[in-house]
Backbone:
């Protein structure tokens, strides 16, 4: 069980709840912090002080005072009016991640919400009662207002559910014996103000991206072996001379994958070629740089998981301070950066696919990896598909964070567009998974022409796993299902060496 206490969560902890449905609970320490914070809010309401977010309107309407007998209506109207998302809903894993992250941010204890607010979200996650949350409508400041409003709507028993399918939130809560929330002062705002939709989508996409860069090493080595390339460029001394950590990690992984290669031994002596093309020779530098970018993105996302992103923040000494921790700029920049890096990973991967199939670039393999060139097209069109996916990723890699349009009557005049960064990054990762699957298939086919010689132990392991999924290409067939099957089993190709 994952115990939430408001401290930062790792991407692995988020994934364990999102994908594996690991159960969640609120710590006693977090409950105590939330109760102290709540006492401050209740004292403000009782004393009749005017404090933003507790007894005022919102955004441009922050100067409008709301009397005590209308505070529940204020919070309810806030949730209903802000539940204005559109487009495809977030998937079930992303929704579970979003609910987990929002509960953990409340557990930090600066939001002024009762413990029951976080506990209701936790109960919903554990019972798999997931509100339907449209993916579009957030500008990433004041946080993810629209997505989180749909989440809050589910918690109060309004709106549809993604799971159970086609069921109202009211009915789903009743079926799970969960009491719908009745929002008190500040609690609607406490649920809406934050960056948790960005972090949910970005974190799960980043876990996939980190796997991708390791799989790219595997596919790259299979390609290198197929075209009779040299591993000299992976020598440890080269990378010690330029000590970027990701580069060293990539070079070591590539060396490990090529251990005991019979193919390499067959041409290690007497090969007239001095060095390989960049897409082979520079794998440590490129794959390593991608590792560095993803490590930075992980650091940013994990800090955010334990950060108070509400506004205003309620401190236990009685201070209620308005700020801008809901602004998604740190996330937008990091996810845009990661999107650029994964797109370039696709670039080098596509160049390796071309080197495998292009008879003008490779004299050691038959054209398009088919023994029946002319009658058959072999891997000609899978390469075309890879190029189409790469072109789309290049369009999506334009940073969302450079855009800005003011909202809320000019009160919210600089926004982050970080949710767009997260959604684009997710799509780029999905495209990259398909391109990597195509390289694995093409490189596996290339190894057919190296038989009976075997590649290095890691590459051979990957080849054998590939053949358990799909047969070699003896004659032309539709390869759409092959590509999708390899994508589905990409975990199988996350091989250490």
Residues:
């Amino acid at each position: 069980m994952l115990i939430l206490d408001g401290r930062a969560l790792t991407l692995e902890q988020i994934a364990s709840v999102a994908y594996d449905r690991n159960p969640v609970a609120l710590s006693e320490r977090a409950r105590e912090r939330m109760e102290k914070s709540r006492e401050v809010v209740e004292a403000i309401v009782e004393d009749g002080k005017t404090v933003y977010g507790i007894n005022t309107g919102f955004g441009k309407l922050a100067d409008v005072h709301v009397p005590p007998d209308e505070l529940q209506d204020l919070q309810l109207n806030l949730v209903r009016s802000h539940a204005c998302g559109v487009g495809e809903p977030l998937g079930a894993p992303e929704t579970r991640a979003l609910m987990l992250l929002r509960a953990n941010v409340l557990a930090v204890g600066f939001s002024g919400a009762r413990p029951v607010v976080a506990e209701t979200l936790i109960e919903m996650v554990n019972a798999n009662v997931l509100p339907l949350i449209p993916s579009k409508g957030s500008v990433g400041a004041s946080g993810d207002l629209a997505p989180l409003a749909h989440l809050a709507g589910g918690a109060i028993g309004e709106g549809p559910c993604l799971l159970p399918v086609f069921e109202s939130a009211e009915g789903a809560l009743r079926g799970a014996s969960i009491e719908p929330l009745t929002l008190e002062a500040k609690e609607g705002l406490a649920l809406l103000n934050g960056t948790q939709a960005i972090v949910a989508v970005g974190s799960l996409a980043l876990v996939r991206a980190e796997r991708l860069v390791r799989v790219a090493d595997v596919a790259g080595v299979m390609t290198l072996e197929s075209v009779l390339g040299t591993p000299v460029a992976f020598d440890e001394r080269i990378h010690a001379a330029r000590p970027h950590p990701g580069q060293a990690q990539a070079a070591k992984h590539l060396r490990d994958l090529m251990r005991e290669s019979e193919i390499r031994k067959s041409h290690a002596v007497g090969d007239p070629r001095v060095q390989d093309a960049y897409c082979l020779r520079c794998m440590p530098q490129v794959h390593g740089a991608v590792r560095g970018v993803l490590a930075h993105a992980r650091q940013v996302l994990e800090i955010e998981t334990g950060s108070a992103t509400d506004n205003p923040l309620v401190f236990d000494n009685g201070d209620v301070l308005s700020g801008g921790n809901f602004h998604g700029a740190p996330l937008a920049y990091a996810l845009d950066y990661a999107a650029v890096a994964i797109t370039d990973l696709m670039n080098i991967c596509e160049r390796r696919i071309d080197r495998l199939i292009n008879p003008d670039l490779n004299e050691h393999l038959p054209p398009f990896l088919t023994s029946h060139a002319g009658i058959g097209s072999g891997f000609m069109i899978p390469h075309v598909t890879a190029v189409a996916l790469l072109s789309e990723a290049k369009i999506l890699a334009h940073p969302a964070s450079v855009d800005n349009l003011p909202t809320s009557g000019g009160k919210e005049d600089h926004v982050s567009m970080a949710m767009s960064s997260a959604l684009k990054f997710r799509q780029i990762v999905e495209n990259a998974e398909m391109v990597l699957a195509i390289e694995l298939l093409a490189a596996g086919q290339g190894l057919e022409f190296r038989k009976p010689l075997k590649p290095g132990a890691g590459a051979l392991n990957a080849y054998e796993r590939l053949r358990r999924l799909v047969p070699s290409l003896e004659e032309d067939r539709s390869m759409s299902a092959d590509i999708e099957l390899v994508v589905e089993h990409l975990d199988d190709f996350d091989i250490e060496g």
User: Anything to note?
Assistant: The CA atoms of residues 138 and 144 lie 5 Å apart. Residues 196-226 form the longest helix (31 residues). Residues 202-493 form a domain with the Fumarase C; Chain A, domain 2 fold (CATH 1.20.200.10). The chain has a mean pLDDT of 96.
